[in-house]
Amino acid sequence: MRNDAARHMALGGVMAALAVVIMALGGMIPLNTFLCPILCMMLLRFVLVSCGKRVAWAWYGAVAILSLLLGPDKEAAAIFAVLGYYPILKPKLDKMKLGPVLKLAFFNAVILSMYWVLIRILGMDQIASDYAQLGLAMTVIMLILGNVTFWMLDMVLGKPIRKRK
Q1: C-alpha dihedral over 28, 30, 32, 33, to 10 degrees?
Q2: Do the beta carbons of residue 93 and residue 86 sit within 8 Å?
Q3: What phi and psi values does residue 143 have, to the nearest 5 degrees?
């Protein structure tokens, strides 16, 4: 007799450790600020399909907290903390009639709120100065590219994962 609950928790723990390592490596290359949270969301999709929603929520919480505490790139950790649960939320949004519009509204609201909190409340002025140097036009272009990247991530997360029997 197999103990599926223990197997699911063990798999979730190993995947969480892998995700924390990915987030810890995020400070090495500037592009990884956006790439590492995406890779971790793909891992969450695998955990969701393999282990279920309950383990996926626990996995997300553990990875988000450990990334914020241990990750060198706090911006990447914040992106994962505010957006990392999207693979769990996606099936519900897919069933809604205005799903694509709600997804993009969700992404923009979450990302803009996150940057507002990072800059205004947590005082991460380096982020504000980085975007000030880029200028308004380039910041808007980055937001548009973020929307395109989110749309592509949504497409990738929508692909079926075969479950081993």
Answers
A1: 120
A2: no
A3: -65, -40
Q: Give this prediction's pTM.
A: 0.82
Q: Residue ranges per domain, the chain?
A: 4-158
pLDDT in tens, 43-101: 999 889 888 889 899 999 999 999 999 888 888 888 899 999 999 988 888 888 887 88
The Cα–Cα gap between 77 and 33 comes to 8
- Contact criterion met (CB below 8 Å) for 147 and 107: yes
Looking at residue 5, what is its pLDDT? 80
Q: Which residues of 84-123 are buried (b: 16+ CB within 10 A; e: fewer)?
A: bbbbbebeebeeeeeeeeebeeebeeebeebbeebbeeee
DSSP per position, 48-66: HHHH-HHHHHHHHHHHHHH
Please give the distance of CA 75 from its chain centroid, rounded to a whole number. Answer: 12
Evaluate if residue 41 carries a pLDDT over 80.
yes
- Tell me: pLDDT of 125 over 90: no
State the Cα–Cα distance between residues 124 and 88, nearest whole angstrom: 29
Query: Which of the 8 DSSP states describes residue 132?
Result: H
Alpha carbons 38 and 32: distance in angstroms, whole number: 9
